[in-house]
Write a structure and sequence with these properties.
The complex is a heterodimer of chains A (337) and B (328). With 337 residues, chain A is α/β, with parallel strands linked by helices. Chain A is 31% helix and 24% strand. In chain A, the strands form 2 sheets. Chain A has an 8-stranded mixed sheet, sandwiched between helices. A 4-stranded antiparallel sheet of chain A has the order 2-1-4-5. The mean pLDDT of chain A is 93. Classes of the chains: A alpha/beta (337), B alpha/beta (328). At the A-B interface, helix 6, helix 7, helix 8, helix 9 and helix 10 of A face helix 6, helix 7, helix 8 and helix 9 of B.
């Protein structure tokens, strides 16, 4: 029997998701663990190839072959109090969980919206798939959902097709669809990346407000550290399929305990630091080299080839170490940071 | 400042695209200067017309009206033949390093093509020039034999930059050159852009939506919304004290990974209107927290608010507007 501490909604435990391509194996997610507490937003942040999206697709069991969960558990506390291992439940059980228990929104709203049906019909279908409500009742709930995400003239918008809406509006409609069955956990995979900043600010504000009202937990996948600072309570930093650092947002932005997170924050231009008071530009401090491919990872610490603190010991793979209480780092030299 | 300090003067530039249901004013009366040896940032959200302005300045798109004074000469009046010698002096670097390089050409052919078009070098001098350019942008000269798909995004952007530099331009339009790159690679390319700008004395128009990059890199900034300039001026002044409510909202909405750099949040209501049917008067008034009836009546002129700093807002001196948008 699986069990979870009372305040934890989701526990990803030593998850491994691999893509087997002939004799080669891409270890896209390799021994990833983290918890999501009730009512909390956890951001998983990383660059391309970090495994952040594969982690979220693993939780939803939406991996396309040859992607496969090869190890670990994804423990989820369902609405009825049972603790399920999402990595192991049947497809039938998974269909019940998706949407009703755990919902997902994407960067591109048309990933979840069907262009051939009105927004209203899609929300009604979603509601009735999970709950035996008469059509009229479901439509009323759909309208309330559009109002909840602040779509003006909700009644009229119900009868519109996705193409009749702007990008920001479609993003809202997708959020309304995702939240229509009151999921306990929302997985948001780069939901604001394609949006303009003023619209991004609206959507982040909306997610924050919905979380306060509904009390759902959010797993927020992003590459943007600015967005992380804006929305996350807890931050999981991924690099090449692994968690390299984890801490509360406040702590992480104050003090990084892994050279990768430290390097990332140091290389994002910040005029208050990177220009002198008289306005002269200082050189930025980039991380040398490129993000490695998960098909060809270096031996030992994956970040070592780009790391300014590299020592011979880095050829030995560091485990995720407790650098400080509630602050984890996968670096042998964390205590020097 | 004398006119000879200015390499490019964009004067009342407009670009209208005809459509079935009338014309779209993608760019409407845009004016700004680019001084020699400086980097001017052009920022705005989708539909602002920033990319169209960038392409018009090189006449990759023909402007519908206005003048483009480059080194004292109006480019708009030039014939295609006359324009050709100017093309060598002006180059562009594109956003997407994946689609802007021909996948069937070797890197040395991609760079060599630019050299051949303008007949700048032949034979061994040409080969040397290609190696030199690759080295200059931080690539191994041996990589000239390879094809674009063999490179990472950051390396491809370096190839795009080498191609632009091949003809020894004075002016470069960089259209979102680091937006598609991973954060850890962005800084490498930004350092390269700065090095090259300094060592070749380049003048640049840097088009971007990332406001932190622009604040760091650019000497001046031009803020566009729905085809018009809302505000422009030295980046330090504009970022320290944005005078237009749109600039204020834009800066406050940009998420920064520095908890100390937060501004008073202004969340704009609604979406950017369609450029097919822009609001009358001030195009920003439908989302502006300070809009009054008068804003619908006249197009606000871009008036000076400080030396070199201009804002197009009739309420720009109102204390409510003035106190908004500062850094907290």
């Amino acid at each position: 029997m699986n069990s979870l501490p009372a305040d934890i909604v989701l526990r990803v435990d030593r998850l491994r998701t691999h893509f087997e391509l002939g004799s080669r194996v891409a270890k896209s997610v390799d021994d990833v663990s983290f918890d999501v507490k009730r009512g909390e937003t956890v951001a998983v942040v990383g660059e391309s190839g970090s495994g952040k999206s594969v982690t979220s697709l693993s939780i939803m069991r939406l991996l396309s072959p040859p992607g496969r969960i090869v190890g670990g558990q994804i423990l989820y506390r369902a609405g009825d109090g049972r603790v399920l291992d999402v990595a192991a439940v049947s497809q039938k059980e998974m269909r019940r969980i998706r949407g009703r228990e755990i919902a997902m929104i994407f960067q591109e709203p048309m990933t979840s919206l069907n262009p051939l049906y009105t927004v209203g019909d899609q929300i009604v279908e979603m509601i009735r798939l999970h709950e035996p409500l008469p059509k009229q009742e479901a439509r009323k709930r759909a309208r309330r959902m559009l109002e909840l995400v602040e779509i003006p003239a909700a009644e009229r918008r119900l009868d519109e097709y996705p193409h009749q809406m702007s990008g920001g509006m479609r993003q809202r409609a997708m959020i309304a669809l995702a939240l229509s069955c009151n999921p306990k956990l929302l997985i948001a995979d780069e939901p604001t990346t394609a949006l303009d900043v003023t619209i991004q600010a609206q959507i982040l504000d909306l997610l924050r407000r919905l979380q306060a009202e509904i009390g759902m937990s959010i797993l927020f996948i992003t590459h943007n550290l600015g967005v992380v600072a804006d929305i996350a309570h807890e931050v999981v930093v991924m690099y090449a399929g692994r968690v390299v650092e984890q801490a509360s947002s406040q702590r992480l932005f104050e003090r990084q305990k892994h050279p990768y997170a430290r390097g990332l924050l140091a290389c994002i231009p910040d005029a208050s630091r990177d220009r002198t008071p008289s306005g002269e530009r200082l050189r930025l401090n980039p991380i040398p080299g490129n993000v490695p491919s998960v098909m060809a990872l270096p031996k030992g610490c994956s970040f070592a080839p780009r790391c300014p603190l590299r020592i011979p010991r880095c050829e030995e793979d560091p485990p995720l170490l407790v650098a400080e209480p509630h602050h984890l780092s996968r670096c042998w030299r964390h205590d020097e940071l | 400042m004398t006119d000879s300090d200015i390499l490019l003067r964009v004067e009342n530039l407009s670009k209208h695209f005809p459509t079935k249901s009338g014309s779209v004013k993608a760019v409407d009366g845009v004016t700004f200067d680019v001084k020699r040896g400086t980097i001017v940032g052009l920022v705005g959200e989708s539909g602002s017309g920033k990319t169209t302005v960038g392409r018009c300045t090189l006449r990759l798109i023909e402007p519908s009206g206005g003048r483009l004074i480059f080194d004292g000469k109006d480019l708009v009046s030039l014939s295609d033949r006359e324009m050709r010698s100017y093309r060598r002096r002006m180059q562009i670097v594109f956003q997407d390093p994946y689609s802007s390089l021909n996948p069937r050409m070797r890197v040395e052919e991609i760079i060599g093509e630019a050299i051949d078009t303008h007949r700048l070098a032949r034979g061994s001098a040409r080969r040397e020039r290609i190696s030199e350019l690759l080295a200059r942008v931080g690539l191994d000269p041996e990589h000239g034999r390879r094809y674009p798909h063999e490179f990472s995004g950051g390396q491809r952007q370096r190839i795009g930059i080498a191609r632009a530099l091949a003809v020894e331009p004075e002016f470069i339009v960089a259209d979102e050159p680091v937006s598609a790159l991973d954060v850890s690679v962005q800084a490498q390319v930004l350092n390269l852009i700065q090095d090259l700008q300094q060592s070749f004395g380049l003048t640049m128009l840097f088009i971007a939506h990332d406001l932190s990059v622009v604040e760091y890199l650019c000497d001046e900034v031009v803020v566009m919304y729905l085809g018009r300039v809302m505000e422009r001026g030295p980046s330090r002044t504009v970022y320290a004290m944005p005078r237009h409510p749109y600039t204020q909202a834009l800066l406050s909405a940009a998420p920064v990974p520095n908890p100390k750099a937060h501004r008073q949040r202004v969340i704009l209501q609604g979406d950017i209107p369609s450029p097919m049917n822009p609001p009358t008067g001030c195009v920003f008034r439908t989302r502006c927290p300070f809009a009054i009836d008068a804003c619908a009546e006249v197009i606000p002129p871009l008036d000076p608010v400080a030396p070199g700093h201009y804002a197009a807002c009739i309420r720009r001196d109102d204390p409510a507007v003035l106190s908004q948008g500062k850094r907290l």
